[in-house]
Here is the input.
Amino acid sequence: MGYDIERFVGYVNEGLLCSICRDVLEDPLQAPCEHAFCTACIHGWLVHHSNCPEDRQIIDMSLLRPLYRYMRNDLNRLQLHCKNREYGCQMVCSLESIDRHERECEYSQIPCSNAGCTVQVERRNLDGHLAVCEYRSRECPNGCGYTILSVEDTQHNCVAELRTELELLRSEMICRVEEAKHEMESRLDSQRRHMVQKESILQNEIEELKSQMSRMMSDVRSLMAAERQHRQELEQAELEKREL
Here is the structure.
């Protein structure tokens, strides 16, 4: 939709009106046949039609182009009233700058910034409203440290609130202790399994060393027996030599 023509000061050229909504062009696009439309208007039209609403020539979205520069300049120079005129704003400015003005206009209706409050006030009155808004928050005057809403003043009980917070902290602490306990038990189990595994490996190595030691002792005994036999054979040979 375009800008309401009633907001404009002075004469508005027919060529600057949307061919669909008949208001002053907003975010304009132009067809090859040179008829101009608001972007929202022509997009909505082409959902159900495939021709220009003025002369019925075939058009589609790809044929739409920005407005000629001279027409865009004429459009931007038009003077119009702020949309907040009904609330008291007397500002008249060019179409080119109207959006910037209305974003900052002191007469704009804006929502209260307090959560839960549905009131809308003029920008210039916002601070006054926030000072008395029943949804404004403040720190408890009794020193408990809680932030309370004005609507909760009569229901706020420092002792009850602190007791509730203490219970929550106690529950949270118990949960954390349990989590730490489970984590430590898990680590101990893991270390225990690792130690048992290492012990089993060491035990196997010890058994292997014992087996090797036993084989070595057997070999030593065999060598010693062979040495005794060899010595006896030498002694026998020596005796035989002497007899000869």
User: Anything to note?
Assistant: The beta strands are 28-30, 36-38, 65-66, 79-81, 92-94, 109-111, 120-122, 137-139, 147-149. Residues 109-149 form one domain.
